[in-house]
Amino acid sequence: METHLPTAKSRLEELHKAREEALVAHDLARRTMKDCSSRPFTPFQKENVPQNEKDPLPSPMSYL
């Protein structure tokens, strides 16, 4: 009996190829963004606190 569905092996090969292509595209995008930026990248540290937690904006209710 003939089927139009791909075999599991061929499907896994297609997925592996697509994953490799995505990794290459991601790396290319990362390099392009790195080249476009003139600012140095400073990675976040675990102890960093977001700005809104350090100095929150006043709530609208505080004006009443």
UniProtKB/TrEMBL annotation:
Stretches the record annotates as Disordered: 34-64
Q: Which domain of life is it from?
A: Eukaryota
Official protein name in the record: Uncharacterized protein
